[in-house]
Amino acid sequence: MEFPIIDGIPILHANVRGQVDAYLLHLIAREDLPHEIETLISDAAGPGSAYDSMKQAMSSYAWDHYEFGASEPSLSEGAVAAKHRPGSASRCLIQAIEKSGKLPSNTVSLDVGCATGGTTFDVAGKFRGLVLGVGLNFSLLRIAARVLREGRVVYPRRQGGVVYERREFSVSLAEADRVDFWCCDACCLPLGPDSLGFVSALNVLDCVPSPLSLLKEIEASLVSEGKLAVCCPYDWSPAATPLEEWLGGHSQRGQNQGDSASILEALLTPGALPGSLEKLRMIDSEPDIPWSVRVHARSFAEYQAHLVVAQKYA
Ligand SMILES: C[S@@+](CC[C@H](N)C(=O)[O-])C[C@H]1O[C@@H](n2cnc3c(N)ncnc32)[C@H](O)[C@@H]1O
Protein backbone atom coordinates (compact mmCIF):
# COMPACT_ATOMS: atom_id res chain seq x y z
CA MET A 1 0.00 0.00 0.00
CA GLU A 2 2.98 2.33 0.32
CA PHE A 3 3.65 2.15 -3.44
CA PRO A 4 0.18 2.85 -4.88
CA ILE A 5 -1.02 2.05 -8.39
CA ILE A 6 -3.05 5.03 -9.62
CA ASP A 7 -4.88 4.95 -12.97
CA GLY A 8 -2.92 1.79 -13.78
CA ILE A 9 0.45 3.46 -13.13
CA PRO A 10 2.56 2.08 -10.25
CA ILE A 11 4.39 4.77 -8.28
CA LEU A 12 7.67 3.00 -7.54
CA HIS A 13 9.61 5.96 -6.22
CA ALA A 14 12.11 5.84 -3.35
CA ASN A 15 10.45 8.98 -1.98
CA VAL A 16 6.75 8.28 -2.64
CA ARG A 17 5.58 11.13 -0.40
CA GLY A 18 7.80 13.67 -2.17
CA GLN A 19 6.72 12.42 -5.60
CA VAL A 20 3.00 12.56 -4.68
CA ASP A 21 3.48 16.02 -3.22
CA ALA A 22 5.36 17.30 -6.30
CA TYR A 23 2.64 16.03 -8.68
CA LEU A 24 -0.44 16.48 -6.45
CA LEU A 25 -2.33 18.57 -9.00
CA HIS A 26 -1.73 15.91 -11.67
CA LEU A 27 -2.82 13.07 -9.40
CA ILE A 28 -6.14 14.59 -8.41
CA ALA A 29 -6.92 16.27 -11.75
CA ARG A 30 -10.47 15.50 -12.94
CA GLU A 31 -11.46 14.57 -16.44
CA ASP A 32 -15.23 14.59 -16.00
CA LEU A 33 -15.85 18.35 -16.10
CA PRO A 34 -17.68 19.88 -19.09
CA HIS A 35 -15.36 21.65 -21.53
CA GLU A 36 -16.86 25.10 -20.70
CA ILE A 37 -16.06 24.63 -17.01
CA GLU A 38 -12.52 23.54 -17.88
CA THR A 39 -12.05 26.74 -19.91
CA LEU A 40 -13.23 28.78 -16.95
CA ILE A 41 -10.75 27.00 -14.66
CA SER A 42 -8.04 27.67 -17.25
CA ASP A 43 -8.87 31.41 -17.21
CA ALA A 44 -9.01 31.51 -13.40
CA ALA A 45 -5.70 29.68 -12.93
CA GLY A 46 -4.15 31.94 -15.53
CA PRO A 47 -0.97 31.84 -17.59
CA GLY A 48 2.10 30.32 -15.97
CA SER A 49 0.05 28.66 -13.19
CA ALA A 50 0.77 25.05 -12.20
CA TYR A 51 -2.47 24.10 -14.01
CA ASP A 52 -1.35 25.87 -17.19
CA SER A 53 2.17 24.32 -17.04
CA MET A 54 0.65 20.88 -16.63
CA LYS A 55 -1.54 21.36 -19.72
CA GLN A 56 1.29 22.94 -21.73
CA ALA A 57 3.47 19.85 -21.19
CA MET A 58 0.59 17.53 -22.15
CA SER A 59 0.01 19.62 -25.29
CA SER A 60 3.64 19.66 -26.45
CA TYR A 61 4.52 15.99 -25.81
CA ALA A 62 1.25 14.40 -26.99
CA TRP A 63 1.45 16.49 -30.17
CA ASP A 64 4.99 15.30 -30.90
CA HIS A 65 4.42 11.66 -29.91
CA TYR A 66 1.05 10.98 -31.52
CA GLU A 67 -0.08 13.59 -34.05
CA PHE A 68 1.61 11.94 -37.05
CA GLY A 69 -0.77 12.59 -39.90
CA ALA A 70 -3.68 12.51 -37.46
CA SER A 71 -3.40 16.25 -37.06
CA GLU A 72 -5.87 18.35 -39.00
CA PRO A 73 -4.27 21.79 -38.88
CA SER A 74 -6.86 24.25 -37.62
CA LEU A 75 -7.46 27.53 -39.44
CA SER A 76 -4.83 29.36 -37.44
CA GLU A 77 -2.18 26.70 -38.17
CA GLY A 78 -0.67 27.98 -41.37
CA ALA A 79 2.81 28.33 -42.84
CA VAL A 80 4.75 28.18 -39.56
CA ALA A 81 2.96 25.04 -38.41
CA ALA A 82 3.59 23.40 -41.78
CA LYS A 83 7.36 23.76 -41.22
CA HIS A 84 7.24 21.97 -37.88
CA ARG A 85 6.14 18.36 -38.10
CA PRO A 86 5.31 16.23 -35.08
CA GLY A 87 7.43 13.09 -34.57
CA SER A 88 10.83 14.55 -33.63
CA ALA A 89 11.26 12.11 -30.73
CA SER A 90 10.25 9.13 -32.84
CA ARG A 91 12.58 10.04 -35.73
CA CYS A 92 15.49 10.44 -33.32
CA LEU A 93 14.75 7.13 -31.66
CA ILE A 94 14.56 5.28 -34.97
CA GLN A 95 18.01 6.68 -35.91
CA ALA A 96 19.36 5.60 -32.52
CA ILE A 97 17.96 2.10 -32.93
CA GLU A 98 19.50 1.78 -36.39
CA LYS A 99 22.89 2.73 -34.90
CA SER A 100 22.48 0.30 -31.99
CA GLY A 101 22.69 -2.92 -34.00
CA LYS A 102 21.83 -6.23 -32.35
CA LEU A 103 20.80 -6.44 -28.72
CA PRO A 104 21.61 -9.23 -26.28
CA SER A 105 18.72 -11.73 -26.38
CA ASN A 106 15.94 -12.04 -23.78
CA THR A 107 16.39 -8.60 -22.29
CA VAL A 108 14.04 -5.82 -21.22
CA SER A 109 14.21 -2.32 -22.78
CA LEU A 110 13.73 0.90 -20.86
CA ASP A 111 12.59 4.31 -22.15
CA VAL A 112 13.77 6.85 -19.57
CA GLY A 113 11.73 10.06 -19.29
CA CYS A 114 9.08 8.58 -21.59
CA ALA A 115 6.62 11.50 -21.14
CA THR A 116 3.47 10.50 -23.12
CA GLY A 117 5.01 7.19 -24.16
CA GLY A 118 5.17 7.46 -27.96
CA THR A 119 8.84 6.46 -28.07
CA THR A 120 8.21 3.58 -25.65
CA PHE A 121 5.82 2.08 -28.23
CA ASP A 122 8.42 2.78 -30.93
CA VAL A 123 11.01 0.74 -28.98
CA ALA A 124 8.52 -2.13 -28.70
CA GLY A 125 7.94 -1.93 -32.46
CA LYS A 126 11.66 -2.38 -33.15
CA PHE A 127 12.89 -4.75 -30.43
CA ARG A 128 11.46 -7.96 -29.04
CA GLY A 129 10.89 -8.38 -25.31
CA LEU A 130 9.24 -6.26 -22.65
CA VAL A 131 9.54 -2.47 -22.78
CA LEU A 132 9.12 -0.19 -19.81
CA GLY A 133 8.53 3.55 -20.03
CA VAL A 134 9.39 5.50 -16.88
CA GLY A 135 8.83 9.13 -15.98
CA LEU A 136 7.92 11.45 -13.16
CA ASN A 137 5.29 13.69 -14.76
CA PHE A 138 2.06 11.93 -13.82
CA SER A 139 -0.32 13.61 -16.28
CA LEU A 140 2.00 12.65 -19.16
CA LEU A 141 2.17 9.06 -17.89
CA ARG A 142 -1.64 9.04 -17.67
CA ILE A 143 -1.87 9.91 -21.40
CA ALA A 144 0.58 7.04 -22.11
CA ALA A 145 -1.36 4.59 -19.92
CA ARG A 146 -4.63 5.45 -21.68
CA VAL A 147 -3.05 4.82 -25.08
CA LEU A 148 -1.81 1.48 -23.73
CA ARG A 149 -5.14 0.34 -22.27
CA GLU A 150 -7.74 2.03 -24.51
CA GLY A 151 -5.87 2.77 -27.74
CA ARG A 152 -7.02 6.40 -27.47
CA VAL A 153 -5.01 9.62 -27.30
CA VAL A 154 -6.78 12.28 -25.24
CA TYR A 155 -5.08 15.57 -24.44
CA PRO A 156 -5.51 19.35 -24.37
CA ARG A 157 -3.84 20.96 -27.39
CA ARG A 158 -2.86 24.55 -26.74
CA GLN A 159 -4.13 27.04 -29.27
CA GLY A 160 -2.70 30.15 -27.57
CA GLY A 161 -2.86 31.97 -24.25
CA VAL A 162 -4.83 29.75 -21.90
CA VAL A 163 -7.03 28.37 -24.70
CA TYR A 164 -6.79 24.60 -25.20
CA GLU A 165 -8.82 22.39 -27.52
CA ARG A 166 -9.60 18.85 -26.46
CA ARG A 167 -8.00 16.35 -28.85
CA GLU A 168 -9.19 12.77 -28.94
CA PHE A 169 -8.37 10.08 -31.52
CA SER A 170 -7.60 6.37 -31.77
CA VAL A 171 -4.22 4.79 -32.43
CA SER A 172 -3.54 1.14 -33.06
CA LEU A 173 -0.39 -0.23 -31.49
CA ALA A 174 0.29 -3.87 -32.21
CA GLU A 175 3.04 -4.11 -29.59
CA ALA A 176 1.10 -2.69 -26.64
CA ASP A 177 0.91 -6.04 -24.81
CA ARG A 178 4.70 -5.88 -24.23
CA VAL A 179 4.67 -2.31 -22.87
CA ASP A 180 4.07 -0.84 -19.42
CA PHE A 181 4.49 2.57 -17.82
CA TRP A 182 5.78 3.18 -14.31
CA CYS A 183 6.23 6.36 -12.34
CA CYS A 184 9.77 6.15 -10.99
CA ASP A 185 13.01 8.04 -10.69
CA ALA A 186 15.45 6.98 -13.39
CA CYS A 187 18.32 7.91 -11.06
CA CYS A 188 17.12 5.28 -8.58
CA LEU A 189 15.54 2.55 -10.69
CA PRO A 190 13.51 -0.18 -8.99
CA LEU A 191 15.35 -2.79 -11.10
CA GLY A 192 18.27 -5.04 -10.34
CA PRO A 193 21.71 -4.48 -11.85
CA ASP A 194 22.49 -6.10 -15.24
CA SER A 195 18.84 -6.34 -16.23
CA LEU A 196 18.38 -4.21 -19.37
CA GLY A 197 19.36 -4.77 -23.00
CA PHE A 198 18.47 -1.30 -24.33
CA VAL A 199 17.94 2.08 -22.72
CA SER A 200 16.75 5.22 -24.50
CA ALA A 201 17.07 8.54 -22.69
CA LEU A 202 15.83 11.26 -25.03
CA ASN A 203 16.04 14.83 -23.71
CA VAL A 204 16.37 13.79 -20.10
CA LEU A 205 20.03 14.49 -19.23
CA ASP A 206 19.30 18.22 -18.85
CA CYS A 207 16.19 17.52 -16.73
CA VAL A 208 17.76 15.58 -13.84
CA PRO A 209 19.66 16.89 -10.79
CA SER A 210 22.78 14.88 -11.70
CA PRO A 211 23.24 13.79 -15.34
CA LEU A 212 26.39 11.83 -14.42
CA SER A 213 24.51 9.88 -11.73
CA LEU A 214 21.82 9.04 -14.30
CA LEU A 215 24.48 7.71 -16.69
CA LYS A 216 26.01 5.63 -13.87
CA GLU A 217 22.58 4.21 -12.93
CA ILE A 218 21.99 3.25 -16.57
CA GLU A 219 25.48 1.72 -16.84
CA ALA A 220 24.77 -0.47 -13.81
CA SER A 221 21.33 -1.51 -15.15
CA LEU A 222 22.53 -2.60 -18.59
CA VAL A 223 23.68 -6.14 -19.29
CA SER A 224 27.03 -6.64 -21.01
CA GLU A 225 26.66 -5.65 -24.71
CA GLY A 226 23.48 -3.73 -23.85
CA LYS A 227 23.02 -0.38 -25.63
CA LEU A 228 22.24 3.15 -24.49
CA ALA A 229 20.81 5.82 -26.81
CA VAL A 230 21.10 9.23 -25.22
CA CYS A 231 20.06 12.44 -26.91
CA CYS A 232 20.12 15.97 -25.56
CA PRO A 233 19.87 19.62 -26.70
CA TYR A 234 21.77 20.69 -23.53
CA ASP A 235 19.11 23.24 -22.61
CA TRP A 236 20.50 23.53 -19.08
CA SER A 237 18.43 25.17 -16.36
CA PRO A 238 19.37 25.60 -12.69
CA ALA A 239 15.72 24.84 -11.86
CA ALA A 240 16.37 21.22 -12.91
CA THR A 241 20.15 20.80 -12.56
CA PRO A 242 22.53 22.80 -10.36
CA LEU A 243 25.23 24.43 -12.51
CA GLU A 244 27.99 22.33 -10.91
CA GLU A 245 26.30 19.18 -12.27
CA TRP A 246 25.81 20.41 -15.86
CA LEU A 247 27.86 18.58 -18.44
CA GLY A 248 29.51 21.67 -19.91
CA GLY A 249 27.61 24.89 -20.37
CA HIS A 250 30.14 26.48 -17.99
CA SER A 251 33.92 26.55 -17.33
CA GLN A 252 34.85 27.41 -20.91
CA ARG A 253 38.49 27.86 -19.88
CA GLY A 254 38.68 24.09 -19.29
CA GLN A 255 39.87 21.26 -21.56
CA ASN A 256 36.51 20.92 -23.38
CA GLN A 257 35.80 24.68 -23.44
CA GLY A 258 32.43 24.10 -21.79
CA ASP A 259 31.16 22.18 -24.83
CA SER A 260 28.46 19.79 -23.58
CA ALA A 261 28.57 17.47 -26.60
CA SER A 262 32.31 16.78 -26.32
CA ILE A 263 32.04 16.32 -22.55
CA LEU A 264 29.29 13.70 -22.95
CA GLU A 265 31.35 11.91 -25.59
CA ALA A 266 34.42 12.01 -23.30
CA LEU A 267 32.37 10.64 -20.38
CA LEU A 268 31.42 7.74 -22.65
CA THR A 269 35.08 7.09 -23.56
CA PRO A 270 36.70 5.17 -20.69
CA GLY A 271 39.73 7.03 -19.31
CA ALA A 272 39.13 10.26 -21.29
CA LEU A 273 38.08 12.25 -18.20
CA PRO A 274 38.51 11.48 -14.49
CA GLY A 275 34.71 11.00 -14.29
CA SER A 276 34.40 8.86 -17.45
CA LEU A 277 32.26 5.76 -17.09
CA GLU A 278 34.23 2.55 -16.86
CA LYS A 279 32.05 0.22 -18.90
CA LEU A 280 29.98 2.40 -21.24
CA ARG A 281 31.69 3.24 -24.51
CA MET A 282 30.36 5.44 -27.33
CA ILE A 283 29.90 3.47 -30.56
CA ASP A 284 28.22 6.12 -32.74
CA SER A 285 26.92 9.67 -32.63
CA GLU A 286 25.04 12.30 -34.61
CA PRO A 287 25.79 15.95 -33.84
CA ASP A 288 22.64 17.73 -35.05
CA ILE A 289 19.26 16.09 -34.78
CA PRO A 290 16.55 18.65 -35.66
CA TRP A 291 13.80 18.78 -33.06
CA SER A 292 10.55 20.80 -33.13
CA VAL A 293 8.55 21.58 -30.01
CA ARG A 294 5.03 22.95 -30.47
CA VAL A 295 4.37 25.68 -27.91
CA HIS A 296 0.99 26.72 -29.33
CA ALA A 297 -0.70 27.00 -32.72
CA ARG A 298 1.43 29.99 -33.73
CA SER A 299 4.64 29.25 -31.86
CA PHE A 300 7.23 26.50 -32.24
CA ALA A 301 10.70 26.10 -30.78
CA GLU A 302 13.47 24.50 -32.80
CA TYR A 303 16.35 22.59 -31.16
CA GLN A 304 19.42 20.75 -32.38
CA ALA A 305 19.91 17.67 -30.27
CA HIS A 306 23.07 15.60 -29.97
CA LEU A 307 22.63 11.82 -30.18
CA VAL A 308 25.10 9.32 -28.77
CA VAL A 309 24.80 5.53 -28.85
CA ALA A 310 26.97 3.62 -26.36
CA GLN A 311 27.56 -0.03 -25.53
CA LYS A 312 28.30 -1.62 -22.18
CA TYR A 313 31.46 -3.70 -22.05
CA ALA A 314 32.10 -6.33 -19.38
C1 LIG B 1 12.13 16.96 -21.77
S1 LIG B 1 11.05 15.64 -21.38
C2 LIG B 1 11.46 14.48 -22.67
C3 LIG B 1 10.36 13.56 -22.97
C4 LIG B 1 10.59 12.55 -24.10
N1 LIG B 1 11.71 11.67 -23.84
C5 LIG B 1 10.78 13.24 -25.42
O1 LIG B 1 11.93 13.42 -25.83
O2 LIG B 1 9.78 13.61 -26.04
C6 LIG B 1 11.78 14.95 -19.94
C7 LIG B 1 10.99 13.82 -19.33
O3 LIG B 1 11.82 13.21 -18.35
C8 LIG B 1 11.08 12.98 -17.17
N2 LIG B 1 12.02 13.00 -16.05
C9 LIG B 1 12.69 14.06 -15.53
N3 LIG B 1 13.44 13.65 -14.50
C10 LIG B 1 13.27 12.31 -14.39
C11 LIG B 1 13.76 11.33 -13.50
N4 LIG B 1 14.62 11.63 -12.52
N5 LIG B 1 13.34 10.07 -13.64
C12 LIG B 1 12.47 9.72 -14.63
N6 LIG B 1 11.96 10.61 -15.50
C13 LIG B 1 12.36 11.89 -15.38
C14 LIG B 1 10.03 14.07 -17.12
O4 LIG B 1 8.93 13.64 -16.36
C15 LIG B 1 9.70 14.23 -18.63
O5 LIG B 1 8.68 13.37 -18.99
Describe what this molecule looks like in 3D.
The chain has 314 residues and is an alpha/beta fold. 31% of the residues lie in helices and 27% in strands. β8 (196-202), α9 and β9 (222-232) form a beta-alpha-beta unit. α6 runs parallel beside α7 (118-126). It is globular. The chain starts with a strand and ends with a strand. The mean pLDDT is 95. It binds S-adenosylmethionine.
What's this, in brief?
With 314 residues, this protein is α/β, with parallel strands linked by helices.
Query: How is the largest sheet built, in terms of strand order?
Result: 7-4-3-8-9-11-10
**Beta-strand level of the residues, as a percent range?**
25-35%
- Which parts are unreliable, with pLDDT below 50 for 5 consecutive residues or more? none
Distance between the termini: 38 Å
The count of strands amounts to 11
CATH class, named: Alpha Beta
* List of distinct ligands in this structure: S-adenosylmethionine
The Rg value, from CA coordinates, equals: 19 Å
Percentage of residues in helical conformation: 25-40%
Just name the CATH architecture: 3-Layer(aba) Sandwich
Number of domains: 1
Q: Tell the overall outline.
A: globular
pLDDT average, as an integer?
95
